[in-house]
Specification:
The complex is a heterodimer. Chain A is mainly alpha-helical. Helices cover 63% and strands 0% of the residues of chain A. Chain A has one domain (2-123, 133-180): Up-down Bundle (Growth Hormone, Chain: A), CATH 1.20.1250. Chain A has helices spanning 2-30, 34-42, 60-65, 68-83, 86-92, 104-124, 151-180. Classes of the chains: A mainly alpha, B alpha+beta.
């Protein structure tokens, strides 16, 4: 069905984003000088992420207990939280990763957000979107920009948080996808 | 204060004692790895340091990234020694764990370096299970179908974890494994395995972002013994070759005739006329045989005509030539007969030489003997050995019936020394041949020669290459010597026989008559062969009966010439093949005497 196709599509897209995030942080770490690497390891916690405030399941049980709608909403918020900072993201990585369009990342995120929105609407089945707990405006606009002058640390944090959030969304969407259709790849 | 001091001293002493005893605080432990098999639980292992000789205990402490609360490991046992197992409740994804291990013994403790762990990224599944490898026999040939199951702990069903698989195959004796990626499916077909061999198969898996599992235990599978039937290939080959054969056959058929011609060349028909069947039938044997006869073959020879017309002897000392212009002209005309037996010799043909000489002689000044002698030199009368073999009887070249040999031109007041020689065979040209038969070469002893130095010029003048005449060169000059009647021209001598004394007997051979002409023709003039020197030189003896003509510079010509030295060796036999010093060896063994000729 159309919904199924959209779901699968969303899963594929977020998977790609996750892979891109992993590659970005790997390249960043490879490009570090040894002393910079030492410096980084001393700084922890490394990833105070913006998305920490977003309540999201951190385990399988918790995830499976969450409804599909909840998972979709969380995914939506996570993606949305990265739309703006992704522009800074592009600046932190080398140009080889994002070739051509420097706004490529932002566009992908925007597309995915739209797709998830569609899925949410489909899942609502006409019901009004009443779950507004998470619709508060997120103070993420300047979150990453105000974290200080240490470019190395901030860059790393940015990349690490991005990767983590993408992984989260991928996991949630997969679980949601498998839950709604029994004949998908999940049963393998 | 005293207490603290006492404590310090005591601890110091204790340390010394413990060091002396060999015990100490524990060494630093080290966290080796943390792994989660299914993204729900995880385990950390550490490596104990030196225990310091005392019983040491280890404790693992951790705290989450966004809290300062330190927890201790909930389970030290489940995962074995020196490990800490975190169950589901204690496991949180996407959260950094800060883990340390502390080693403690009686003397002290030691803390390991902290390790940051995010469980979501340390997933290493268990190995796949129930690996089976089965041989499947198909039309294309047997192959192996390997199938397995996911590790029990991994929850792929709910989509919590997605695994991809990999298998590898090899024979026992192989060093390298052949790896195949199976993606997310749980089976794989392996083709192109060698028949009648045993193979080892192993499988492993990996989550999307994580580590590869360990390889499974080896599963063995044996391929059956089969003959690889690449049927389609053979069919194609067969069709192709049939096609080629058809084309070849058709081509051969079309080109039947030329093939036949190539393989079985036609037998040439007889060139000989053979017996005429009709005549045979008629029974007239005479006619049969007559038809075989070719008219005009062999050419009948008028010996008289064929022999050397005349041999003109050139006197040694004077180096003058007596030339009978009239005869010369006649001879010149005659000598315009067909070419020599071999074309190469044409230029050296004395006849030709003579011819040109004739021309030149007439044109040139007659007063200058020397000049004439120059001319004369060119008319080499050579007794060639083998060059003129072709002039054997029957040579069709002498259509006029006369074969002219090299005119040997003598210059002498008695111009003609005629020698007769027992002709072993028709001599017409064969002064050379006769000379062959008889090793001595007859040449008048007083033969001179040639102004060797002029020879090259003349050769060039007449456009002749180096003469290949080996043997004797007698040179004749055809200019009429002064004092000699102009009618006395070159006369040819017929070598008639060689008498037992090794004398070449020549007799003059002139067209018009055999009679001596002129007063200075002293009948038959003979030159006896005096002797044959060791150098194979024929020394001719000059007769005393010659009339000495005035005007000739040949001093001693009227006298009998005895010794060799007035007679210069004229003839060189080239058979021996040993060139004299100073002789110019030309061509194939022939000797050019010109070089050797001293100037008189």
């Amino acid at each position: 069905s159309e919904n199924q196709r959209l779901f699968t599509n969303a899963v594929i897209r977020v998977q790609r984003l996750h892979q891109l995030a992993a590659k970005m942080i790997n390249d960043f770490e490879d490009s570090l000088l040894p002393e910079e690497r030492r410096q980084l390891s001393k700084i922890f916690p490394l990833s105070f992420c913006n998305s920490d405030y977003i309540e999201a399941p951190t385990g399988k049980d918790e995830t499976q207990k969450s409804s599909m709608l909840k998972l979709l909403r969380i995914s939506f918020r996570l993606i949305e939280s990265w739309e703006y900072p992704s522009q800074t993201l592009s600046g932190t990585v080398s140009n080889s990763l994002i070739v051509g369009n420097p706004n490529q990342l932002t566009e992908k995120l925007a597309d995915l957000k739209m797709g998830i929105n569609v899925l949410i609407k489909g899942s609502l089945d006409g019901q009004p979107n009443i779950d507004d707990n998470d619709s508060l405006p997120l103070p993420f606009e300047d979150f990453y920009l105000t974290m200080g002058e240490n470019n190395l640390r901030e860059s790393f944090r940015l990349l690490a948080c991005f990767k983590k959030d993408m992984h989260k969304v991928e996991t949630y969407l997969r679980v949601a996808n498998c839950r709604r259709s029994l004949d998908s790849n999940c049963t393998l | 204060m005293r207490n603290s001091g006492a404590v310090l001293i005591l601890s110091f002493i204790a340390k010394l004692i413990s060091q002396a005893a060999g015990v100490s605080a524990p060494g630093k432990p080290r966290l080796t790895s943390c792994r989660s098999p299914e993204k729900e639980t995880f385990t950390c292992w550490w490596e104990p340091g030196d225990d310091g000789g005392l019983p040491t205990t280890y404790a693992l402490y951790y705290h989450l990234e966004n809290s300062e609360t330190i927890y201790e490991c909930p389970d030290y046992r489940t995962a074995g020694d020196n490990s800490c197992f975190f169950n589901k409740n204690d496991t949180s994804l996407w959260v950094n764990y800060n883990i340390t291990v502390v080693a403690t013994n009686a003397l002290g403790k030691n803390i390991s370096d902290p390790v940051e762990v995010d469980v979501a990224y340390i997933v290493q599944p268990n190995t796949p299970e129930n690996v089976t490898a089965v041989v499947v026999d198909e039309d294309q040939g047997p192959f192996v179908r390997v199938s397995w199951e996911k590790p029990r702990t991994a929850d792929t069903r709910s989509g919590w974890i997605t695994l991809q698989y990999q298998l590898r195959v090899k024979q026992k004796k192989d060093k390298e494994w052949e790896e195949y990626d199976a993606g997310m499916q749980k089976y794989y077909n392996v083709f192109s395995l060698h028949p009648d061999k045993e193979f080892m198969v192993q499988v492993r898996c990996k989550p999307d972002h994580g580590f590869w599992s360990e390889w499974t235990q080896t599963t063995y599978v044996k391929m059956p013994d089969y003959i690889p039937r690449e049927r389609s290939l053979w069919i194609m080959i067969t069709i192709f070759s049939v096609f080629i054969v058809l084309i070849l056959t058709w081509t051969l058929n079309v080109k039947r005739n030329s093939v036949k011609l190539c393989l079985l060349p036609p037998v040439p028909g007889p060139k000989i006329k053979g017996f005429d069947k009709q005549l045979l039938k008629s029974g007239k044997s005479e006619e049969v045989f007559n038809s075989l006869v070719i008219q005009g073959f062999p050419p009948t020879i008028d010996y008289d005509d064929l022999l050397v017309e005349y041999l003109e002897v050139y006197d040694n000392e004077e180096q003058e030539l007596v030339l009978d212009s009239k005869d010369l002209s006649e001879d010149c005309m005659k000598s315009k007969s067909p070419s020599d037996c071999d074309s190469g010799r044409g230029s050296c043909d004395s006849r030709t030489l003579l011819l040109e000489k004739c021309m030149v002689g007439r044109e040139g000044s007659r007063s200058d003997q020397h000049q004439y002698s120059q001319h004369g030199e060119t008319s080499w009368a050579s007794t060639e050995s083998s060059e003129c073999q072709g002039l054997e009887p029957g040579s069709p070249e002498f259509s006029d019936g006369r074969v002219k040999t090299w005119p040997v031109v003598f210059s002498s007041p008695q111009p003609h020394h005629h020698y007769q020689v027992e002709a072993v065979k028709p001599v017409y040209h064969s002064v050379p041949e006769i000379l062959n038969h008889s090793s001595p070469h007859a040449m008048p002893a007083n033969y001179q020669n040639l102004q060797h130095q002029d020879i090259p010029q003349q050769e060039g003048r007449f456009g002749k290459p180096a003469c290949r005449h080996s043997q004797s060169y007698t040179h004749g000059l055809d200019t009429p010597a002064p004092g000699v009647s102009p009618s006395r021209s070159l006369e040819y001598v017929e070598v008639q026989r060689i008498n037992p004394e090794n004398m070449l007997l020549l007799r003059p051979l002139s067209d018009q008559n055999r009679e001596p002409e002129g007063s200075d023709y002293a009948g038959e003039d003979y030159s006896k062969v005096k002797e044959l020197t060791s150098n194979n030189i024929l020394l001719l003896q000059r007769d005393t009966s010659y009339q000495c003509a005035d005007g000739y510079s040949q001093a001693g010509q009227c006298t009998t010439q005895q010794p060799p030295h007035p007679c210069k060796p004229v003839i060189y036999q080239s058979h021996s093949g040993m060139p004299q010093e100073g002789m110019r060896v030309m061509g194939n063994g022939y000797v050019d005497t010109t070089v050797l000729m001293p100037s008189y």
